[in-house]
Design the sequence.
């Protein structure tokens, strides 16, 4: 019996830059991932990384950001979550442009509390990228491989 690939699903959530947006994002994203058949360990990892990215928008985005978007894509082998704002962005002097460059050699426990976000994200998902340019805002992209169970609703629907 040939198993058909899981079809792609993509959805976008847009939130005001308010503290309440983070638990609402966690609830909606978590319930959606679970409902589509993503295993609980992957859901937990994705939610922790997405929470860090959203919290960074609220903490570092500045007053000019009114809202931000969380765009999630699911496919046959993985999940991608993009957290995007339209803030001022970062210049080269503001820090690393790629999360792979950020405090990669420093153990998580030795980082100051305010500098742990990218390290926590990297510990939870397979790939973290940070695209930030002055005047264009910031997009944090999180990617995680998912092994879909045979009885996942998306797999059963295909």
Sequence:
């Amino acid at each position: 019996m040939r198993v058909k690939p899981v079809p792609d699903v993509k959805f976008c959530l847009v939130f005001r830059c308010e503290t309440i947006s983070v638990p609402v994002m966690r609830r909606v994203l978590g319930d959606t991932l679970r409902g589509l058949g993503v295993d609980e360990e992957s859901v937990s990892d994705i939610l922790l990384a997405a929470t860090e990215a959203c919290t960074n928008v609220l903490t570092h985005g500045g007053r000019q950001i009114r809202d931000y978007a969380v765009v999630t894509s699911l496919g046959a082998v993985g999940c991608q979550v993009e957290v995007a704002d339209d803030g001022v962005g970062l210049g080269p002097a503001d820090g690393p442009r790629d999360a792979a460059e950020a405090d990669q050699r420093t153990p998580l426990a030795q980082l100051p509390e305010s500098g742990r976000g990218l390290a926590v994200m990297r510990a939870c998902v397979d790939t973290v990228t940070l695209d930030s340019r002055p005047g264009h805002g910031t997009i944090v992209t999180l990617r995680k491989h998912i092994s879909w169970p045979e009885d996942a609703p998306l797999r059963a629907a295909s």
